[in-house]
Amino acid sequence: MEWKIGVIGTGAIGRDHIRRLTNVVHGAKVVALSDIRPENAAGIAKEYGAVFYETGEEVIRDPNVDVILVASWDPTHAGYVLQCIRERKYVFCEKPLGVSAKECRNIIDAELQCGKRLVQVGFMRRYDRGYRALKEIIDSGKIGAPLMVHCCHRNRIPGPQHTTDMTIKNSGIHEIDVLRWLLGEEYETGQVLTVKQNRSAQDGLEDPQIMLLKTGSGVRIDAEINMNSHYGYDIQCEVVGEKGTARLPDPNTILLKTDGTRSCQIYSDWSERFIEAYDIELQQWIDSLNQGALQRPSAWDGYAACVTADTLIQARLKGTIEPVLIREKPAFYE
Ligand code: NAP
Q1: Neighbours of 210 (CB within 10 A)
Q2: What pLDDT, on the 0 to 100 scale, is given for residue 253?
Q3: Which residues, in sequence order, are bridge partners of residue 146?
Q4: What separation in Å is there between the alpha carbon of 77 and the centre of ligand 1?
Q5: How far apart are CA 73 and CA 159, in angstroms?
Q6: pLDDT in tens, 97-128
Q7: What is the domain-level CATH number for residue 66?
Q8: 246 pairs with which residues across the strands?
Q9: Residue 15 CA: which ligand 1 atom is closest?
Q10: What ligand 1 atom has the least distance to the C-alpha of 123?
């Protein structure tokens, strides 16, 4: 079957997903799209033979659209996802699922009421080969029980709209999700450390920040979130266990030796670093639609990540260690 997809948001990742759904993924066709910038979206619609709509709401309502992919601005995600649930249409929503835990709770309540899982969240690191290999090692017990995790998320430079809260809610949220998936447990407390600030950080932006998390079993996590590395997009993760350590591999790039130097490329952004993960993620989403059984990350995962992000932001503002209060998980999301 070919799923007819409506895409909302044709910025950087929306365009990339449209290309992917058209040229890489089997069983999908983009038939409609919209963006807040019509001049941008109308041209893309023409290029891909899709219908252009002025609003995301019209994309969702179009009877020719089977499923939706939301790749618009963060504050619009929850509204579109709720409309999809009302229309009983499957929706793949780029992270974050909402801009607050409250928005995500509304989505969970709507999905529970609907009685069918319709929502998948775009935490693509779960589909990255390196992270999958790391999870296999942890689950195999080879390094014993994890005790600590050291990680960092470095962006070359932030986007023009980037804020101090977004460092956690938009970027750090990847660490929040992938670490609870890797470790298979929820967080108990969160704290944010302010460190010496980068003099090149944009006006008012606190950068870098260190997120400290403790899981229910006591695993300690430190995650450097650094928006102005200048040198590249660099994602690192090392898990320290009772009997050994396991480190996320760097992506495969050519090791070049020339003119008395050894060098290899460092990617400049997420679209290069995780290109394969996005391909696998969307192919598996389409395959899961065919099987009628959505995979994770679910709306619950989107909610748990948002609760943790909200907690960390409060912890940063108050300078305290805050409890991460996640409500009891309904059996529906097991
Ligand atoms: P972007 O380049 O700024 O694109 C977002 C697009 O959505 C822009 O064209 C924006 O228009 C548009 N938009 C804003 N409000 C809208 C509305 N009400 N209805 C429809 N469109 C609207 O940002 P991006 O990098 O593509 O990011 C888009 C989303 O994907 C974000 O939520 C981001 O967190 C997520 N993302 C995820 C990953 C990942 O690794 N999974 C990577 C990148 C992005 P304006 O330009 O006028 O604001």
Answers
A1: 16
A2: 86
A3: 241
A4: 10
A5: 12
A6: 999 999 999 999 999 999 999 999 999 999 99
A7: 3.40.50.720
A8: 239
A9: 26
A10: 41
Domain co-membership, 76 together with 136: no
How far does the centroid of ligand 1 lie from the alpha carbon of residue 246, in Å?
A: 34
Ligand 1 binding pocket includes 170 (Cβ within 6 Å):
yes
Determine if ligand 1 sits within 6 Å of the CB of residue 321: no
**Domain extent at residue 119:** 3-124+276-298
Q: What atom of ligand 1 comes closest to residue 170's alpha carbon?
A: 34
- Ligand 1 pocket test: pick from 94, 167, 176 the residue with the most ligand atoms within 8 Å of its Cβ: 94
Residues 184 and 316 in one domain: yes
Please check whether residues 207 and 312 belong to one and the same domain.
yes
If asked whether residues 133 and 232 sit together in one domain, one would say yes
109 lines ligand 1 (CB under 6 A): no
Predicted local confidence at residue 284, as pLDDT: 98
The amino acid at residue 189 is T
The domain that holds 212 is classified in CATH as 3.30.360.10
Whether ligand 1 lies within 6 angstroms of the CB of 41 is answered as: no
Bridge partners, 221 (sequence order): 149, 213
Residues 49 and 181 in one domain: no
Is residue 218 domain-shared with residue 77, that is, in the same domain? no
Q: Both 161 and 63 in a single domain?
A: no
Low-confidence spans in the chain with pLDDT less than 70: none
> How far, in Å, from the CA of 8 to the mean position of ligand 1?
9
Domain count, the chain: 2
Per-residue pLDDT reduced to its tens digit, 191-203 = 999 899 999 999 9
Q: Is 12 in the pocket of ligand 1 (CB under 6 A)?
A: yes
* Nearest residue to 118 (alpha-carbon basis) of 308, 288, 304, 334: 288
Tell me the helices (H) and strands (E) count for the chain, helix number first: 11, 15
Mark 93-102 as b/e (b = at least 16 C-beta within 10 Å): bbbbbbbbbe
CA of 132 to the centre of ligand 1 (A): 27
Mean pLDDT in the chain?
Answer: 97
Residues 179 and 328 in one domain: yes
